[in-house]
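hey m, so remember when u said the tokens were messed up on ur end? i reran from scratch. heres the input so u can diff it against urs
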Amino acid sequence: MMGNKIRSSEIIEEAIKELELTIRDAEKADAGNVSAGIRVRKRMQEVIAKLKNVRKVISDIKHQLKAEKEENK
């Protein structure tokens, strides 16, 4: 069923790594560094996009399982 599809857990792990890498820039932004703030905002948009993709992946899995269940009736 899953094959080589994108896995939601992998996307979440990528998002967590991205957030961890952003902490230092966030601290700099808190101290008033405008450039660091821009980098933080950009990365947050990227993380948001990844997490929205998780919702899609989970929804696709749900629909696939529902379709398989209907086929097996």
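this time it looks ok to me. Residues 5 and 61 are 10 Å apart (CA to CA). if urs says something different then somethings off w ur setup not the seq
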